[in-house]
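REVIEWER CHECKLIST
Item 1: Sequence provided? yes
Item 2: Single chain? yes
Item 3: Sequence as submitted:
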Amino acid sequence: MIEIDRPREIAAIDMGSNSFHMVVARVVGHSLQIVSRHKQRVHLADGLNDNMELDQAAIQRGLSCLAMFAERIQGFDPENVRIAATYTLRQASNAHVFLMRAESVLPYPIEIIPGTEEARLIFLGVAHTQHEPGQKLVVDIGGGSTELIIGEGFEPKLQYSKHMGCVSYNQHYFPEGKISAKAMAKAQMAALQKMESIASKYKKLGWEAAIGASGTIKAIREVIIAQGHADGIITKERLDEVVKLVTACKQSDELALPGLTDDRKPVFAAGVAILSAIFTALKIDSMAFSDGALREGLLYEMEERFRHSDIRSRTAIAMATQYNVDIEQATRVRDTAEQIYRQASSNGTTTELAALLRWGAQLHEVGLSISYPGFHRHSAYLLRHCTMPGFNLEEQTVLATLVRFQRKSLKLDEMPELSIYKRKHLYPMIRALRLAVALHGQRTDEALPSMVLTADKEKWLLSLPDGWQTNNRLLAADLTKEQDYWRKAGWELVIQPLEDME
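Item 4: Structure as written out by the authors:
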């Protein structure tokens, strides 16, 4: 019997503020073939209270949806699944509670991505499904935020994520489903004020085609088609007509508009208000619709990571250039840190953690651009708060933590909470980076001697050639100080002559 290799299947899940989406695709040659799509209304943002805490009902709705999605992707390898959470979980102060409970129903890591990263991935999803030449303006109105991107090909040039979404605006301007012309005007003005700071940049850069993505704009398009405009193009005039139709109703459940589904009615007025304000602010003439969005962006980038260069590597290189990092020193530290980490992780480690260590080593000195005193803290701040395309919030936190603890005292109680990784995962990475930084303290091209490292939990044994420390007294003093730092943190670093090893 001849065995035929089955195409690899990959899945992407978009945990939005209004709906959760999952798309599954087969990798066929150098292209992706969508094989299934799944969507569930979760109304996650409805569960955010004034203290930005998710209530238990919203958490349960989200978990129930993820449990359902888990049935479809049961048995998928972790590298074939990518899950991104957006605005609501970015804002929720108890997001970690949701993520911990989600582990029991969906055994794959959930990434909470920054707004700018969400924008980049949305553009990537649209670009793979809409192939018009020239620059494109892409607008995606979600439940909690709106992303606006101008780009060409697959590369965004200008991107922002604004805190305005159909769920949050519905709660604020159309409470209990009440609709009026006055409420519509207030919502439009609020959205115009949000757009005020960025509108001139977008109009100056310009675009050849405007494209809308995701549920809000799709719903508006369906209503416009039902009004007799078969091409589905959203124009200012057609959108103004939709505004009139909406404000002619007093309650959202009375919106008997042809083309409008019942589940979209509660947030439709808010979505119309936001889109009409964007049309006004950017002077948009017409907008087409794309089926591609965040989940498609996740899919295509997942496959790109297997076949091509990782955008995170390009981001690290660009950031090193921007902050005038000494590339030769960073490369020396990176190579040594990787060597030490491999030796210390003889029981195996994840490719992702090794990659994060590599990028952390490349960027460990970005804070020198601010000042030398406390530069490790400056580096941590930059890596935590800069826009870093390709990195989710947890990955940026890991990078910031690595460089924060590259030198000086190990105040491990200051380590931030993590959800995808555990603190114990970071300890070997921190130790490897610290040793690499110490060993290259002289910043010279002189090669390090042969060295062997063995690790036994919190005790590391570093074996160096006999007499080498005697001939490198300054470095020996640095290593002695490093031993003291480790001791105070409850770790142990033993340095011995290489021939003492059995």
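Item 5: Key structural point noted by reviewer: The domain at 8-113 is CATH 3.30.420.40 (Nucleotidyltransferase; domain 5).
Item 6: Recommendation: ____
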